[in-house]
Amino acid sequence: MHVFSKYADRRSSILLVAATLLVLRSRIYTFPRDLIARLTFAARRGQLTDDELAEALQQVYTEEKDGSKTLLVSYRNRLSKVPIRPTPLKKFQEDKKYFPLLTASSQAKPNVDRSFVRQLRAILFRIAFPKLRSKETLIVLLHSFFLVLRTVLSVGVARLDGVIVRDLIRADGKGFLKGLALWFLLAIPSTYTNSMIRHLQSKLSLRLRSRLTRYINDLYLSSAPDLRYYRSGLDGIDQYITADVDAWGEALSGLYGNLLKPSLDMVLFTSQLSRTLGVRGTVLLFCNYYATVTILRAVTPAFGKLAAAEARLEGEYRAGVGRVGRESEEVAFYNGGAREKAILSRVYQTLMNHVDSIYKIRIGYEWIEDYVIKYLWSAAGYGLIAVPLLFTRRRRTLGVQTSEAERQGGPGVTEEPDDAVAGRTETYISNRRLLLSLADAGGRLMYAYKDLLELAGLTARLYTLLSTLHSLPPLSSVSSTDSAPENADAIVLSHVDIGVPASGAGHPHDEDEISLGGDAIVDIEEVALQSLDSTSVGGNAQHPPLVRDLSMVLKQGEHLMITGSNGVGKTSVARVLAGLWPPQNGSAGTVSRPKDGDAEDTSASCPRKAVFVVPQRAYMVAGTLLDQVIYPESFAEFATSGRSLTELEEILKMVHLAYLPAREGGWRARKEWRDVLSGGEKQRMAMARVFYHRPKFAILDECTSAVSSDVEGRMYEHAKTLGITLITISLRPSLMKYHTQLLTLAGDGSARWTLSRVGTPEERMGIDREIAALESKLAEVGKWEQRVQELDGLLSAQESMDNAGPADEDAVVV
Ligand SMILES: Nc1ncnc2c1ncn2[C@@H]1O[C@H](COP(=O)(O)OP(=O)(O)OP(=O)(O)O)[C@@H](O)[C@H]1O
């Protein structure tokens, strides 16, 4: 019986544990899993409630098993899913050889030359059209079809035009009406073709932009160790990635239409005309083309260079406006509006001078262009039409429209003068229309040359961006494998020189000036990037080391404080530890640190990061309140990690921000957090991230300077209880008690350093007590000074009384 009851007891306790686990499990998983299921269902349904939409917006991405992502885009209560496949690393490695850096001589000025063709080929066939069978190819084919159709229809319209006028002159009412009906019929496909050409051109431009943007974003926003966004060094990179990519897509898709259609027109119209004009006329026509091209080439300005310079100046202006927007509060505190306006006005004026000078250049060019294309070509056209009409009497030579039956003397054909005039008019009208179309096609080809030059300028900009990003040397500064097993969980620095790495990597700073004539002098960027090789991150004559020959082993649980005066290189040490800067002495110095998320460190489903840095300036990401805590993790990762909102609430409580969700309207609230949160709140939020990610080592770079010291202390203690090893950069001696080692940087220009033990906890607390005693004594200084002044006053009063004594006596005597 006893055994039985014992058995029953055990069973009930097992049941109890199982039930508790189930409840806990549901508590942990309910929020994210439900959310994903609901959203997927809602997305399939198409229509979403406001709440679901807000959740979808928070979600942004869902991750697929194969590494691809599904972007959730909301539009009018609907959610569409856009699959996004990240560009594989292998593709970047393969592409690298197609994007060698441009040397100063080979890059030179953007022009339609071999260098341009090479750059365009690399961008087109490695990025824009990587495969023959793609949607872009289909669009190009469709576009080409409509362009050909448009040319064929133009010939039809020209012929019909002639027939209608002929019938009118013949006073053939029936024929005229028939022609008019045909005219309306032909107008249907003609107009549809026009709008399809425009639509497909825009579509192609959009597709090109998307392809390039995705590729560039994947390359640019590369994770550690590449960190290309941190190291690109290109000024105004936002202009490259946004406006330049867009302008390039538009220029290329527009150019295709502007080249293909006029070329086809030229061939077709010339062949049509040659039937009327004969050999002599056709030869004259070609002489006309040749003369026109020669004249226009001679007077065409350097549109490529001008376009590149304009894009750069636009970028500078854009960056200036963005800076004021970002730092608006700081500018407002200084009341710096007038100063900022002056800076922006100057940049804007430079841009305007440049644009204005382009317009001025265009006056002369377009004047000659119009004169040649419209008037010279038309005059040549008249002359060519006149040849058969004036010098050939025989009727057979008159009409391309006159059928064989008519020539054989078919019905309706008479030798009456009226018919002869009608026939000539028909020929004239058709030929004139063809010639006008020819002039138009020629003009467009000439304009296309100008567009081609502008495309060369934009291509040079894009190529500069791509080649700079591709050519950044690998950042192999930090190895994640430890040579010594006893240091498997430690950060080890061995003979490391720390200093500012060589700059110039990828900076198109070398500038060349071209004169546009008149008052305009424009800087053209000249990219001299040869210096960008892996050796450039080594020694740097301009920047001597800030810290020389630094060697130390920092084991988990050994908390380090780095101190030293301002500008001595404390943050630079953090940069090297985080892998942002390589050791300045190259491979002579080595840095190793534990790997991210070792198996034994995994708590639940979230592996621990090895090193997590909280920088001096607190960064707030665009997104919800929840995104602020989990950054850089995405909501999708949070949702699948199994962690709960309750956990986040606990973390906020720990950093004394528990009131935020209620105050700001919940976890899904989206605000400009940079402005909404105070300086101290932002710093506490940054600490919340540390508690969320629970890294093995946390580098805290003066990130609690605006937090009250009692909260600061509690946060430090909590970090330690979570098993986080602290590396604190600070000038506050009160923080020393939380650390076991002290790295002091000399700050006398010698790049020396000392590493000392802070002592036992009692000693550390003793230091703290001593500091507190000194601080309280310092607080008394004011009072003592006041007392000294009082005593001084008393003494001087006494002295003056002593001095005044005999005088008074004298006075008494008197
Ligand atoms: N990207 C850079 N380019 C040029 N110089 C730099 C760069 N980053 C840092 N420096 C210089 O390196 C020196 C050390 O900078 P660091 O940020 O490490 O100083 P710090 O000791 O952290 O100073 P503080 O206590 O003021 O934060 C400074 O003189 C700084 O001007």
UniProtKB/TrEMBL annotation:
Spans traversing the lipid bilayer: 12-30
Family matches, as InterPro entries: AAA+_ATPase, ABC1_TM_dom, ABC1_TM_sf, ABC_transporter-like_ATP-bd, ABC_transporter-like_CS, ABC_transporter_sub-D, P-loop_NTPase
Pfam family, one: ABC_membrane_2
Domain ABC transporter: 529-773
Gene3D superfamilies according to UniProt: P-loop containing nucleotide triphosphate hydrolases (3.40.50.300)
Keywords: ATP-binding, Membrane, Nucleotide-binding, Transmembrane, Transmembrane helix, Transport
Keyword Mitochondrion: no
Annotated stretches, region: Disordered: 401-421, 584-603
Protein family (similarity comment): Belongs to the ABC transporter superfamily. ABCD family. Peroxisomal fatty acyl CoA transporter (TC 3.A.1.203) subfamily.
The protein's name: ABC transporter domain-containing protein
Organism: Hohenbuehelia grisea
